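Notes from the pairing session

We agreed to fold both candidates in a single pass and log them together. This is the raw record for the first candidate, unedited. Please don't reformat it; downstream parsing expects exactly this layout.

Candidate A
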Amino acid sequence: MKKGLSLFLVASALSLTQCKNETYQTQSAGETTATAASKDALTDYTYETVPNDPLNARVYTLRNGLKVYLTDYEDAPRVQTFIAVRAGSKNDPADATGLAHYLEHMVFKGTSQLGTQDWQKEKAELDKIEALYEQHRNTTDPAQRKKIYHQIDSISGVAATYAVANEYDKILGAIGAKGTNAYTSVEQTVYTNDVPSNQLERWVALEAHRFGELVPRLFHTELEAVYEEKNRTLDNDGWKVMETLNAAMFPTHQYGTQTTIGTIEHLKNPSITEIKKYFDAYYVPNNMAIALSGDIDFDQTIRMIDEHFGKLKPSTAPTFTVAQEKPIAQPIIKEVTGPSAENISIAYRFPGMSSRDAQVLSMISAILYNGQAGLIDLNLNQQQKVLQAYGYDNQMKDYSVFRLGGSPRQGQTLDQVKDLLLAQVELVKQGKFDDDLIPAIINDNKISLMRAYERNSDRADAFVTAFIYDIPWADYVNRPEQFAKITKQDVMAVANKYLNNNYVQVYKRTDKNAASLKVEKPSITPVPVNREAQSAYYSEFMAKGPSELSPVFVDYKTDIKEAKLKNNIPLLYTKNNENGLFQMYYILDMGSDNDPKLGMAVNYLKFLGNDKYTAEELKKEFYKLGTSFNVSASGDQVYVSLSGLDENFEPALALFESVLQNPKADQKALDDMVQGMLKARNDAKLNKGVILNQALVNYAKYGPKNPFTSVLSEKELKAVKPQELVNLIKSIPTYEHRVLYYGPRETDKLVATLNAGHIVPAKLKPVPAEKVYAELDIKQPMVYWVDYNMVQAELMFLTKADAFNKAMVPTIRLYNQYFGAGMSSIVFQELRESKALAYSAYSSYSTAAKKDRSNYIMSYIGTQSDKLPEAMAGMQELLTNMPLADQNFELAKASLRNSISSERITKSSILFDYERAKRLGLDYDIRKDVYESANSLTFDQLQAFQKKYVSGQPQAILVIGSKDRLNFKELEKYGKVKQLSLEEVFGY
């Protein structure tokens, strides 16, 4: 799932949409580049470009129909890669839903050459397994089905002896790839990697090889991983709301009749034969695209892609017939129950993203909610009329959806939230919004795109969107220009056309005892992963490689300019040479640990006006300037930030400073905020992620009194006076602080502007001494558990280690790479690939964020409750006796060096990397030590590290799960079992 970055970058069912148009220019590479024809290749390639394209992209179409999108962006010697297939869950057969998603998993399993030790022997067993699955699928008698599955399990064990698990992942890890993954959505399946630029040709050869052939090996263990993924969605109330909403919105179209993961019934009756048919039908070059952004040479890149992918044979992919939905005549009301906090969702159907009305929908969405100055932002969130509210558009190819949502305040009904949301919609329909809002949205969209195009992932993802949704690149590039032409009249017309009494409404009710479905655990015998084996393809591939890139480490003394502002305030500065955007921060080394009211005060600030503007007017003013501000407090720091268009830096700074200097106390705003905080606290106790990862982890590290529980009581909250918080806000600039700036200004001009505009007293106060919470020694094994109604159980094994020591960092980084990080790690191979115990499992030796603080080993596994004994035993065995795999170890070292040699810390990241280093007592880039040590580290050293700091160390095992499903006898094997109430772990 991708984060939305602008109005055109939509997530989840949200995809990256719309950009800019002019006329195509069709050119020959030979006409534009002197080195177009290489000495060993005579093919000349034509490509399409678009004037004023911010990506300066070239779009090629190979003879077999494969689309190739390229953009050169040399921020680092790396390349973001996406391979996109126009095949998603809407293309699944109606009797085999989830097929596209399951196929996505199988594409990682290798080919008849990659991932096998003896293909002919393996193939004979795989053919038997495929036939047995067809029998299993067509058999209804439970006893007979169980017998067939036992045969599948038995033969799978034999087949696995010839396989080599994760060879694809091992190769990608060794060459320094990051983000190796894939995702399936309604329209598409997309495979992702981020590779060093010197490894690009090897990546191309590998991908062309794996997309040329599908071999569904290790099928039944991967199927179990998909079962676990399904169970995670059944434990996710938000996911259940989305599926319910889609089913009601699209009773005919596959957007609603089929889900991406598939039904339980279909998952229990998979067909390898159907998966192969689907691969052959859709995974053809003329139905696929390669999208690359990074440090590339256009001509060399297209030639290497053609050399390898050009061999794939084209074929006509099945035509998708769009099911026509009838208009929704009256509201459709649905209800979902589950243990999480209550909320309401409202959704309207719109045309697909290529339509003009869908583009106007993007404007409507931003008018209602843009995170800063939309109607919902100002009228509901700013005025605290609801606990939280939002709106967004989800644009798909055949239809789009506009969704509103909200969470109620204490004592507020879901219908009252609904009425408030619908009232904002009516304002849009009537044109009752400021005339300058649309120009501000257009400006904000331009800024968002500028920010997005500083990242290779978003640049390449723009290509994916254009391809998947059949948008010519010229039209995509032109979208902001077309968007800028939208008028208030257009908005009102489209809003009145589509936003009427024609919505789907889903009530999410809280029911801690709601019944949960689950995919039942099949009987699976662990299969060997053959870590030391390798295919002939793998051996040949790894024997040849490019010369290693030279790493570039940050030199804090030369990469950061330092200056002094008035009153000796330090200024740390790096220049933005790319665009006209800036980021500025005032940082104080004090926080809510020093005074719990400080965190409350910075939250209060967002609801306050000043001596000139109301709170709502301030938001509008910043938005019109193309800037935004924020104040936040962690336990030991306060961050005051301002960012946006540097051309408006002076007026934005003046506005920013006036907010800090002259906040206007507001009793009602405080009362509403306190009530909202109390409701949010109650809602947090219904969130299993917060319970495990924050409440339980802090309890185990520090005991009942810890940074998470040290909050003001309800009585204390209600006793706070507005002026107390206003005084705290006004005191922020009076303490010693430093200023960080990343932007296009020259240092002298910046210093002059800040000296004139940054308002501080003649003498700054020293920050108070840090409040330190004592970390508990975990002397005896303990099992802490919290009851939560869920299908799965989630476990965290927590071990306290030594204090941060920079000399240990290289070993720690290598240990994590080898043991617990990524799909080629020991933990992933054992617990998911071999034993099929989890969809998600990892282990990390986590270094402290500050010197003199402890490191921690944190190992996680999420599993079905009935697999708890095997899952706990499996993780504990790995933590106690780390397996030796020479090949994996060498790959981990290569991965570490290749990753570091191609990483570049740039832009504002230089400043924050320096901040992190200072907190650890470092004055240099610690990656230098890791890189220089990686090759010389031995497995004996790694094993000694593991035995000293991990194996046999006392653990606190943290468990969240249903008391009716957890196996307490099993838990007792690992230590004294103690149930904790929500009051104990939350402190209220």
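Candidate B (folded immediately after A)
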Amino acid sequence: MNIKQIRLDSFGPYENWTFTSGPNGVQLVYGANESGKTSLLEGMRSLLFGGKHKKYGYVSGSLELDKEGTAYHLGRQNKNLDFYSFGEPSIKDEPNQLWWHGLDKKTYNRIFGLTLEDLQGVDILNEVDVRARFFGAEGGEQLGGVVKSIETNANDLLVASASGKRRINVLIDQLQENKARLSALGEHETQYVELQQALKASEDTEAEIQNQIKEWQDYREGVEMVLRAWDTYRRSEEARRRMQQFTSPDTLDRDAFLSIDEGLREARQNMQLWLDKEEALKPENFDPNSPFTTYGQDIEDLIQQGAKWEQLRRECEEGEAYIAKVKEQLDFSRGLQSSWRKDESVPTDVNWFEGERLSKRLRTAKDQLLYWQSQAPSLQKEPKISEDSSSVDTGENSPVNTWAQQELQAVMTDIADLESRLGEHGSIRMAAMPIWLQRIGGIGAVVGVLMSLAGLIALESVLYSIGGIILLILGLGLFWYGWRLRHVDDSDVARLMRELERLQQRKSYLETQLDAPLPVASDVPNLETAAIEQRYNDEGKQLQANYEKALAEWQAWIPEGAAKSLDEDDFFSMKHEYDQYSEQLRTIEGYEKRLDEHKESLRLIEDQAVTLWYNLGVEAPVSPTELKRIYNQYKNFQQQMIRWEQKESQRKSYRMEYDNWHRKEKELLLEQKALLEKSGLSGANEYRQKLIDEDQFKQWETIYKQSQVQLDLLTPDGENKDLFYRRLREGNKENWTDELAHADQELNARKDAMANLYEKRGQIVEAMRALGSDQEQREAIQQRQELESELESALEDWATQVVIAHCMERAQQSYEEESQPKMLELASQYIKRLTNGAYTFDMWGLQDGLALLNERGERLPIHHWSSGLADQVYLALRLALAKVFSYQVDALPIILDDILVRFDEDRQKSALELLAELGEHQQIWLFTCQQQVYYMGQAIAGIDTHILQRA
């Protein structure tokens, strides 16, 4: 798990503060003393685990976390938790319960979030929580939990303390009180004598306590004197150490070096002065080697085509809009055609010659058939009715009637289609209201003319004239639009009405043919009449067959998309509509061809512009407007180029001045180099640092002498000065502060004992007067029996818990002995890295205590470790514990605050390299107040360096 961002809205010195980590595993944060490093560490602890800080209270802020590629937000506002993954519901559980198996804040602070004080000591290896979590793995952690649960149950029954309040302790106290009560009730005289002796003993105890109070008061005064001298002594020791650090046996020529340094400063100032003057002559943001120099002619060529470019773009846009409008009008006119169906496409190739031939043939066959029908033979003789005569066929099922009925049905279908089209066209006309548009447009045009004349002649106002012209244009536009709608609608409606009238005439003719009765013979014809009728019928059948064949061929020829009810009379209207449609289609194709030519010309110009844009590095879209902007920049560049050439000679004179001072700088640098070689130093910074060290040595020497004078004044009268210094040298402020607090506690304890003694003396006097009755003695005996029975039961329970705890503790120790050496082996590798191979852990002598082995195999016990070596061992143990935890649960971020202060430079570098290596798999935050650690971190890969700033 990695921390990507920290935000502290309110915590200690931090208000509305945000910090973002780098991409590497180690985040090294430098800050001087009192810059807020420790407060930041406490804030990170509080954000991870919550809780109230003893100094700053509750934290308000958030952490942005990354766990296995998933981003989480962990925020806290006082006691409120705001924990969620982005895009997911809020998480109610704490992170330590959700991810880290219930790891508590105390254990985290002992392993992962460390200050220099938290780092000290190896007692952490014996803590129950650490043993259970870091050496127990899976089953071992559960085993440790069981052991702790059993110990808790046993402690709930009995605690090894005189003032314990557990169940068995309470029963024992009650039983003792009962026994004392029985003894008091049975032995009043003996008790009175004992009380007298106790009263005498209290007087002796009082005298003894008074002597102890006097001794502790004297001891406290001595400790208080040492504390008053402690800060002065530490300042004296610090000054002495600084004097040793800054002492230099070299004798440096201060005046010569400072004179050369001042000359170099003057030379460089003048060099910068003439360089600034030279730069001031150069136009801002001007480069004589700009692409405008190379591609200026291309810009000139393209700008000459700018008008053509804009015209082509405009014509292409207008052409596309015009073609779309013409196609829309073509589709509309197609819907008004009577010979062609709108739901099907018009064929591209039609054999009109064949159609004309078939229409003429059908017309001939039809005329012949109609002529035959009109020449039906008439019978001249009177009819003769015979008994066996029957009704003659009326002719309803004749071939002519069948054809007439079919033709009538097709004509009625076409009439219904035309009426529906007329209805739609009528609704369009009603919606368009062309007459009202013409009227409104005419009125607007007249008003516009009047306003223009009034503005020009009467009012002499330009606004009135412009408004009148605009109104005139709008009125004329509306008038034209209404006229166009009426004209188009009237022509289309007239054509549809003519077609409807033709179909109505055709319908009437067919109905007349169906209603006309055929000749009916009511008598027996003679032979001549029968022969005539037979010839007539035979001729009708032949003509009917010819007509049906011609009709079938005509209907087979009718093109796809044409109305199937068309007859031979509709041929020329159908061909006329087809020719009109084809002509309009060819016109559109011609427009599209010319539009493609314009687009090709436009593409060539825009390709040239794209190439120019690329050469100039322009990222804006290609357009004539952008070309004008580039052309303006090019003209500006040409003007700046002229000014730059004019000022070139002046810049050369400034350059000569610069070169003169540059030569002087080189001469001074040669003198400085000779002075450095004479002193044996490698660089001017080192020489300058030596001079600063001499000044600091003198300052610290003054501080040391002043501190010695103050210590002489603070040395108690009658005490040896060396002995007093020894006490200061061997102790530390924390110990003396603890001793002072201990002395105060002892004094308070003696005073409390004295108060208790006085109270007890009063109780002794009162107890001598107290006597119990026989009833009280019987109640006391019964109470003793009950207490003894209850105590026996509680002791059995406690003994059972103790035996179980002992067995479980042995099992846990056996389990931990298998896991702990693995951690110590890993810690031994880290110690070897931190000490540059000087030490490792003594793995075979752990039973004799924790110790190190040097390169010769010699054992170094813990009490022989230096403070710096101890810090390195403690750090290695923490890193190993954190590594073990990452194997078992999760790689938690490690936070270290100034833990390298007692490392020398080589081991600081080794520690940073080790942390960078561990940071590849686990995030590490390192806070430091040492600049050298900060600079070392910048030179090591895998470490991000930051400077802490609260504002």
